[in-house]
TrEMBL record:
Residues 456-466 have a biased composition (Basic and acidic residues). Residues 1-23 form the signal peptide. The chain crosses the membrane at residues 496-517. This is Gram-positive cocci surface proteins LPxTG domain-containing protein. It comes from Phytohabitans flavus. Keywords: Membrane, Signal, Transmembrane, Transmembrane helix. Residues 451-472 are annotated as: Disordered.
């Protein structure tokens, strides 16, 4: 089955064709008044990944039609659901009936539009599914009602395997976790398709401040902040990817594997460090897929490593119920391959600090102020910082470095070269220095217009603000003098190696946060 994106592209192409055809419908003898008909831009073959359907509304008559209504009745279909995507605002769903409104149809004109989506139910039997009844109604110039129709024969086709991830929240808001805590991950996978799976993999993500405990020798691990860390700090592994054991049969139709038993014992656990942010609700995720699709999910080899224990994932699942081996197909529906779990964390504190070196120059000079922003911990966090130029000076954007941190824009969002006040941010997490990240070490350019005042400041804005343990080092003076000691610093670009290193960290953070956009399925473990 084609993906939705491909079907949308095909629909757009069909619209172009329809527009060219509908501009003029040749007919030796046009019917008096509107003459209404309907047809569809797709055949009626559907599986459980869904098919988006478009409809053509024809007026083959010699007069225009107004208040055009198309109605599609799917109540006679077997094991097929009809739905209307949110972005189709001109159609409404009521039970199994979709009603679409068009403003009108000119004489000899054709109108095309997406109208609904059909999807077969999980594990439904392939074969004829019945007829979808289509009706079109409109009014002629004299108020007379005209009707027409167009039906769609629907057939259910094999869907292939449909791997589904399932999970449960790690804890509740009433029982938050913090440094030193360990909790099981309630992961499970199922095959909701109508054919057995091929070889599959499972992948688990946890946030910064947490780490996956098990170090299976046949699984790959990824750390957002690799390296050695002080005792009590946890910086990964943040992602584990485990392919199914080679001798494990594929998951059959309707079968699954639950990685946690009724007592709470699990194949995977997550440990939390004293750098875990809080109090807040964060989360992780479970993903399942076919091994053939795994390469697109893998990180570069330099970011992955094998588990360090002698125990293998294959050993851990050896006692789980195997399935009957059979021919398999590629997976058609990957929308439900992700499941998110929530994590509620205990209150924690961090200590953000800023420094700025004094500088000196002559009136008219552009000088550079070296500064640092660092998180002394223990908690990871996030932060922005704001420069306020001393009177008699102005902050200057860097032509050589167009980085994401400092925003030189006016109130309308247009870029400008100079501002009296500028806000900056790493646009991501700002871990404690125990992670190995040594914070921001940069320079801000400043032009001396006249004798500088003593009212310039650099202030960090920690987030969450109420977690800041030492507000006294959140702000420093910007000391700029004319002449005297200190000297004007050379105007140079940002350190490329530093920017590249931090930029890589921000990319990794972005990947770590991506899973929060995925839907969550709740795992219910029966006694």
């Amino acid at each position: 089955m084609s993906s939705l994106k491909i079907r949308l592209a095909a629909g757009a192409a069909a619209l172009i064709v329809a527009a060219s055809v509908g501009a003029s419908i040749p007919s030796p003898a046009l019917a008096a008044g509107p003459q209404l008909e309907m047809s569809y831009d797709a055949i009626g073959d559907v599986d459980n990944s869904g098919r988006l359907v478009g409809a053509y509304a024809y007026n083959r008559g010699d007069e225009p039609a107004s208040d055009v209504t198309m109605t599609f009745d799917a109540s006679g279909l077997r094991d097929v659901a009809i739905s209307v995507p949110d972005w189709i605002d001109y159609c409404q769903l009521d039970g199994q009936i979709v009603t679409c409104e068009l403003s009108g149809l000119a004489a000899e004109h054709t109108e095309w539009s997406h109208v609904f989506e059909l999807k077969s139910k999980q594990q439904s039997k392939p074969g004829p599914a019945g007829t979808l009844k289509g009706t079109i109604r409109a009014f002629g110039p004299d108020g007379t009602e005209y009707t027409g129709g167009g039906d769609l024969e629907v057939t259910i086709v094999e869907s292939g395997p449909d791997l589904v991830a399932s999970t449960a929240d790690i804890n509740t808001a009433n029982e938050p976790v913090g440094g030193g805590d360990v909790r099981p991950i309630a992961a499970a996978i199922y095959n909701d398709g109508d054919t057995p799976t091929g070889d599959w993999y499972v992948q688990i993500w946890v946030p910064t401040g947490a780490g996956i405990v098990e170090q299976y020798s046949d699984c790959e691990y990824r750390d957002w902040w690799p390296g050695e860390h002080p005792d009590g700090y946890v910086y990964g592994p943040n992602v584990v990817t485990c392919p199914a054991p080679a001798d494990l049969d594929p998951l059959g139709v309707g079968e699954g594997l639950i990685f946690v038993d009724e007592t709470g014992e699990s194949l995977f656990h997550v440990a939390f460090g004293k750098n875990l942010r809080g109090p807040e609700e964060t989360g992780g995720s479970v993903q399942v897929g076919l091994v053939d699709d795994l390469e697109s999910e893998r990180a570069p080899k330099k970011l992955t490593r094998k588990g360090t224990s002698g125990k293998a994932f294959a050993d851990a699942v050896a006692e789980l119920k195997p399935t009957t081996r059979a021919a398999s197909r590629r997976e058609g529906n990957t929308d439900n391959n992700w499941a998110n779990f929530a994590i509620w964390t205990k209150a924690n504190t961090h200590d953000f600090a800023v420094t700025a070196e004094p500088v000196s120059g002559s009136i008219g000079d552009i000088v550079e102020i070296p500064y640092t922003v660092i998180n002394n911990g223990p908690s990871d966090g996030a932060a922005g910082w704001t420069f306020k130029a001393p009177t008699g000076t102005v902050l200057v954007s860097d032509d050589e470095y167009d980085g994401p941190w400092c925003n030189f824009s006016d109130e309308s969002g247009h870029p400008v070269k100079e501002l009296p006040e500028v806000s900056c941010s790493t646009e991501g997490e700002f871990p404690a220095k125990a992670s190995g990240y040594q914070g921001v070490k940069e320079k801000m350019k400043l032009r001396i217009i006249s004798t500088p005042g003593d009212d310039g400041t650099l202030r960090v804005r920690p987030h969450p603000e109420n977690a800041e343990s030492n507000p006294a080092n959140d702000e420093v003076k910007l000391v700029v003098t004319v002449g005297g000691s200190g000297g004007g610093l050379p105007v140079t670009g940002a350190n490329a190696a530093l920017i590249g290193g931090i930029g890589g960290g921000v990319v990794a953070i972005g990947a770590a946060l991506f899973f929060v956009a995925r839907r969550r399925r709740i795992l219910l473990v029966s006694e």
